[in-house]
């Protein structure tokens, strides 16, 4: 638990928020904006952030008041509806009048351009001086960077999020162990298809359910040793994953399970929102997706039948020729950037970074993520019971948008189910085996212009190969088309950027 004195130590005093403005009526608007500080003057820290809820927390929210008390900072939150956030973000950038802190939802062209042209502080030289921010994950930090430079504190999400959701009851029915290798995975898919795992005497089940969402195929390719989008070309440069032999080995496996009926025949046209249905309805036994899908599948099955406990499990990646490997997520959802137009000096920057560092302390994470005990939740042993009072919840909703979870998420937890506990274990273990994409921080102009077209060529060819519409020569022809349609230009640019980054 972080004590008040820990927050006050080195804390900085900022101008009163609009709500408290009358207290400091003698302070002019100009002095607030310019950072001038006379006797008793405070500075104001303004934060622009999205809200995904219908209502904003009121300015006098007890949670916001507690935040200001713990940090000794008066915070002015500029809420923007999530649906119009990108538009507002671009308008604000164009105006040149930026708040000190801005939530950035992604590496959009406008943010990239603004960062490159000096609108935001480059933070790498300063992060080492802060107890929490200095513990940023190197892979996620690199993923969130632009040209290898850090222009915002990432908002962390599970890096090793992927997993294999499986019908545990089917494994038990057929006397099978959890698969751990690609070969064992294949044998389970075959048994789930051929050996009547639901015991109804009908040939009405299959192993893997997939949809037109490409994520599961991308993930399984990593098991086979294929690189994550870009791999080492053996000459110190990068080559696209689809040109590696490991990628083709994965394709051959996908083609085999499709031809043997171990995956649904309509995957290429299946709406991703329909993906859970065959699993929940007892038609399919395996999903390769984010591991937390398992807890959703478990919940859906229990909603149909409250007695249907213990039917779902979640596993790590399958071991392949290069050992245990898993495709990570980018590891973050947007970032928190600091404006140079309103934070003009290093001294001011360090104060902002101190505030952001404080928000990663357990007490502040719990405050902004869970609220206040007795109002937004009650304690139940090591866990919490959130209130259902909508008025009380309004005081905290949306405030998690300024949480970064560095070095980890320390918000309070509801009591987990066995499946939820297993999901957490899998995601934690996955962090040791994820394969980073070395091209993640490289911003390609060619890809900005031709990316969708280039991606479609390879994705279409992959599907056609899996379903047997083309052979290896047909796939090679698609790669040649990719190259002549801008792929060669893209690879050349990526390698120039990669060499400059190194």
Q: Strand portion, in percent?
A: 5-15%
Largest sheet: 5 strands, mixed
Number of helices: 18
| Average residue-wise pLDDT | 91
Q: What would CATH call the architecture of the largest domain?
A: 3-Layer(aba) Sandwich
Proportion in helices: 25-40%
CATH superfamily of the largest domain: Periplasmic binding protein-like II
Strands in their spatial order, largest beta sheet: 2-1-3-11-4
Low-confidence runs (pLDDT<50, min 5 residues)? Answer: 1-41
Structural Rg: 26 Å
Structural class: alpha/beta
Total number of β-strand segments? 13
Do you know the CATH topology of the largest domain?
D-Maltodextrin-Binding Protein, domain 2
Question: Please, how many domains?
Answer: 3
- Span between termini: 41 Å
- The first-level CATH class of the largest domain is given as Alpha Beta
Keywords: Cell membrane, Lipoprotein, Membrane, Palmitate, Signal
Pfam family, one: SBP_bac_1
InterPro entries: Bact_solute-bd_prot1, SBP
Organism: Paenibacillus silvae
